[in-house]
Amino acid sequence: MSTTPPVVAVLGTGILGAPIARNLARGGFTVRAWNRTRAKAEPLAADGVRVADTPADAVDGADIVLTLLNDGPRVLEAVRAAEPGFAPGTVWVQVSTVGEEIAQLAEFAAKAGLTFVDAPVQGTRQPAEQGRLVVLAAGPETVRPTLQPLFDTIGSRTVWVGDDGASGAASRLKLVLNTWVIALTSGVGEALSLAKGLGVDPRHLVDVVSGSPMDSGYFQGKSAAILSGDFTPSFSVDNAAKDAGLVVEAAERAGLRLDGTAAGRDRFRRASAQGHGGEDMAAGYFASFEGPDSEPRD
Fold first, then answer.
1. How far apart are CA 125 and CA 134, in angstroms?
2. Which of 103, 135, 167 is the last residue of a domain?
3. Number of domains in the chain
4. At 4, is the pLDDT very low, low, confident or very high (cuts 50, 70, 90)?
5. Average pLDDT estimate for 11-29
6. Residue 2: is its pLDDT beyond 60?
7. pLDDT tens digits for range 169-213
8. How far is CA 31 from the centre of its chain?
9. Where in the sequence is the domain holding 125, given as residue range(s)?
10. What SS3 state is found at 39?
11. What is the pLDDT of residues 253-279, one digit of tens each?
12. In this structure, how many other beta carbons lie within 10 angstroms of the beta carbon of residue 91?
């Protein structure tokens, strides 16, 4: 049996795609990467990643293809463009957050003769850089031995939730997890904005919460971003708005009302309209304040 690591193609080198490609290359995989804006992928060459001009060039000869694009339509556009380079049976690992658009992707995979694995990840920039993502996976047991070394390189843990990628089980779990993330982010932002509005020292809020049952690493990270004004994106406001929309749509189809998530979606959209779309999702904080510059009022 060959011990040579599989050749991996990474389509999409954004906040998650770039560190994933880099970690795979450092882990001994042969990695090719493509991005819609090639300049964003070019720095990966220093880590031994071959940057491709087209999706078809990236996947030509690849054993495993990872897609990490913003949404379902962009993923589908990329794999359609890559189709001439696919070999029959190529393992396609769909990593993007696409919600119930997973059905269209699975349909394409079946028609193209690809082995489809639904594997969104929980985690943002820092866990991706550290190889500490949590992989939520659904796919055939036959490919798990091939994929597990890859998942172990990019993540700290893999949770297999089914043996059929087309079932959407992993993507549905991702929506559930995102509901909790949206609630946490909105809660931190609203609490700190109210502190601002009432003239309460926000450091007192952080002091009381720290070490209490209310505390979490997430609270600490997002409150620190807001208080420092450092909104370097770990996961952007625009992506948070997109994901919140996917959650609300899925809930409505299930006959559920998720009022908090709908409000969180609207907060992210409002913050984006104020010019914070590319900033970290903690910048949803600014949605509490009126005015075109979205700055808190003294």
1. 13
2. 167
3. 2
4. confident
5. 97
6. no
7. 999 999 999 999 999 999 999 999 999 999 999 999 999 999 999
8. 20
9. 7-167
10. helix
11. 999 999 999 999 999 999 999 999 999
12. 24
Q: Which of 167, 201, 228 is the last residue of a domain?
A: 167
Residue 106, both tokens: 């699975």
- Residue 244 corresponds to which tokens in the numbers above? 């919140």
Residue 139 to residue 117: CA distance in whole angstroms: 5
Residue with tokens 């059929």: 164
- Is the pLDDT at 7 greater than 60? The verdict is yes
Compute CA 81 distance to the chain's CA centroid, rounded to the nearest angstrom.
Answer: 22
Q: Helix, strand, coil: what percent of the chain each, to 5?
A: 55, 15, 30
Taking each continuous run of H as one helix and of E as one strand, the counts in the chain are 12, 9
Residue whose structure tokens are 């560190």: 19
The pLDDT value given to residue 5:
85
Q: How confident is the model at residue 291 (pLDDT cuts 50, 70, 90)?
A: low
Give the E-state strand segments of the chain in sequence order: 7-11, 30-34, 50-51, 64-67, 91-94, 115-118, 121-122, 133-138, 155-162
Task: Look over the chain and give the mean of its residue pLDDT values, rounded to a whole number.
Answer: 95
Both tokens of 75, joined, read 């993923």
Give the contacts of 79 (CB within 8 A, at least 6 positions apart). Answer: 11, 55, 65, 67, 92, 105, 108, 109, 112
Q: Which amino acid is present at 1?
A: M
Q: What is the maximum span of the chain, computed from C-alpha positions, in angstroms?
A: 68
Q: Under a CB-based contact definition with an 8 Å cutoff, are residues 66 and 24 in contact? A: no
**Which pLDDT value is given to residue 298?**
40
Count CB atoms within 10 A of the CB of residue 164. 14
Tokens found for residue 124: 């943002």
CA dist., res. 294 & res. 298, Å (int):
12
Residue 264 region by backbone torsions, left for phi larger than 0, else alpha for psi between -120 and 50, else beta:
alpha
Residue 237 token pair: 């406001």
Residue 2 lies in a domain: no
Tell me the pTM. 0.93
Same domain for 205 and 258?
A: yes
Cα gap 258→247, rounded to integer Å: 9
